Amino acid sequence: MTSLLDVNGLTKTFGGLVAVNNVTIQIQARSISAIIGPNGAGKTTLFNLLTGIYQPDKGSVVFAGKGLVGLRPDQVNAAGMTRTFQSIRLFHNMTVLENVMVGMHARLRVSLLQTLFRPPAFGRQEAHVRQRASELLRFVGLGGRGDEISRNLPYGDQRRIELARALAGDPKLILLDEPTAGMNPNESETAMNLFRRVRDDLGVTVVLIEHDMKVVMGISEHISVLDYGEKIAEGTPAEIRSNQRVIEAYLGRRAASEHPPLPAS
């Protein structure tokens, strides 16, 4: 498999706090990978560094052969990396379809004059955007609900809207920040199947931050573990599940000595 994302020596400090410390990670193309660790381990900060929300103090991020350090979030998005967030960030007064259409803005070629005067070329592009957004809603299981106001949909469906919006940017890689948080086991299983389809049917590489170990172990091909901003382990689910340092990071040294490996899928 070909490496799509190369993170090398990434470091970020906030005052005296080292949030991410010399982290090196490789993500293979068309894979599903997870980044895990206890609360405060630096996982979301790492995502923020990858997507241009924060700039690193040291290190490099190379995506599809292009350096991303110094780029704005919209430029990272245009390069082919999109994301979702821990907290749902929809435009709650807009329709489901409109929310997904927003995700295509980086791919559009629309001038201010075209927006004001709406020539035929603008209409054709708008029709294409609507069609693609509708296709993505069907893909995530929300076909026929595009005209509903997004805030009226259940929590799990709002997560699906977020995923569809992230996919609307036609990404090569999608970062999912705790995508199954707040879901029951059946919803989590459905979400896992959807993430597999994102990889298998759309060819999009998936990287997720997730606290649900059954989800992590059940879907990931490769796992990187952070603790206090440092990468302490990486490997397959089987390797991570029995890694003593990982168990100690989650449970503490004393509890880990009397505890079995982390749960399997």
Describe the model.
With 265 residues, the chain is α/β, with parallel strands linked by helices. The protein has two domains: 1-80 and 171-265, Rossmann fold, CATH 3.40.50; 93-169, no CATH class. The protein contains eleven helices and ten strands. Helix 3 (96-102) packs across helix 5 (120-139) and helix 5 (120-139) packs across helix 6. It is globular.
CATH superfamily of the largest domain: P-loop containing nucleotide triphosphate hydrolases
Task: Assign the CATH architecture of the largest domain.
Answer: 3-Layer(aba) Sandwich
Mean pLDDT: 88
Gross morphology is globular
Spatial gap, N to C terminus: 24 Å
Q: Going across the major beta sheet, what is the strand order?
A: 6-7-8-3-9-10
Number of strands: 10
Q: Count of DSSP helices?
A: 11
What structural class do you assign from the helix and strand content?
alpha/beta
Instruction: List low-pLDDT spans.
Output: 254-259
Helical percentage: 25-40%
Strand content: 15-25%
The topology string of helices and strands comes to EEEHEEHEHHHHEHEHEEHHH
CATH topology (fold) name of the largest domain: Rossmann fold
Oligomerization state of this entry? single chain
Question: C-alpha Rg, in Å?
Answer: 19 Å
Major β-sheet annotation: 6 strands, mixed
Jot down its keywords:
265 residues; alpha/beta; 2 domains; 10 strands; globular
Question: What does the secondary structure layout of this molecule look like, with pairings?
Answer:
Elements: E1 3-14, E2 17-28, E3 32-36, H1 43-50, E4 58-63, E5 66-67, H2 73-79, E6 81-83, H3 96-102, H4 112-117, H5 120-139, H6 155-167, E7 173-177, H7 185-202, E8 205-209, H8 213-219, E9 222-227, E10 230-235, H9 237-241, H10 244-251, H11 253-256
Parallel strand pairs: 3-8, 3-9, 6-7, 7-8
Antiparallel strand pairs: 1-2, 1-4, 4-5, 9-10
Helix pairs in contact: 3-5, 3-6, 5-6
